[in-house]
Amino acid sequence: MPWDFLLIFLFLGVIVPWRGRVRLRQLLALPVVGTVERLTLYTSTIAFQWLTVAVVAWRLWAHGYAPAALGLVIHNRTRTALAALAGSAILGLLHTLNLRRMGRSPEKLPVSLQALSERVLPQSSSELLPYLALAVTAGLCEEFLYRGFAMAALAHAGIPGWGTVLLSSILFGLAHLYQGRGGLLGTLLIGAVFGTARIAYDGLAAVVLWHITVDVVAGVAGPRYLVKSDAIASERKI
Fold first, then answer.
1. N or C: which end of the chain has fewer CB within 10 A?
2. For the whole model, what pTM was predicted?
């Protein structure tokens, strides 16, 4: 494997998780996280992800990777469109029901999840649109990085399909390590589903829409079920 690809894998497997945990600690250390802090988080993350994609795309182009090898070509538009829409509907419903279950559970949410939700999820209409831009960015950029670049580079190195799915899913899970053990395992499982679908449909189109749907539902339904009403009220007074 080329040295620059190894550096990219090191970046995705070490620097990205480290950066996520550092930023989370910084947010948790703040006594109050308001609109300015959340908008700064959203915009900086958008810029970081697109910059990362630009660098990775540059190195892929330098090594002669074709768009088809990266999953950027839709081979069967009807089949892909049906899978994208059906998968989005199912994932959106399941994610909404899961958030509702957690929010209405008699057991209290873990302190870390409660704090993360209150600091990261949008809590006003002025925050929702930038968050949706972040959700779209995450769907496009993360799928390109983990199911596009990572799976293509691993496959080119001779790793079988199941291995590319597993290794790319581990990287994807590590990127969400800031969410705790549950976030790591949950995103690893989702990554395995997305990776399998990327192979099954020979492209990224369907999984990009699935990814965007999951993040949009988190931003729309998450505050309703995971954020205390008094926290939202206090935000609106600021």
1. C
2. 0.91
d(CA 52, CA 58): 10
For residue 103, the model assigns a pLDDT of 80
Q: Which amino acid is at 77?
A: R
**Using CA atoms, how far apart are residues 161 and 216, in angstroms rounded to an integer?**
29
Strand (E) or helix (H) holding 188: helix 180-200
- What confidence tens digit (pLDDT) does each residue in 94-127 have? 999 988 888 877 666 666 677 788 889 998 989 9
List phi, psi (to 5°) of 3: -60, -35
Coil/strand/helix, residue 160: coil
CA distance 177 to 185: 9
- The DSSP symbol for 107 reads S
Task: Let me know if 166 is exposed, middle or buried by CB neighbors in 10 A (0-12, 13-18, 19+).
Answer: middle
- Collect all residues with Cβ–Cβ distance below 8 Å to 186 and sequence separation of at least 6: 176, 179
Residues in the chain: 238
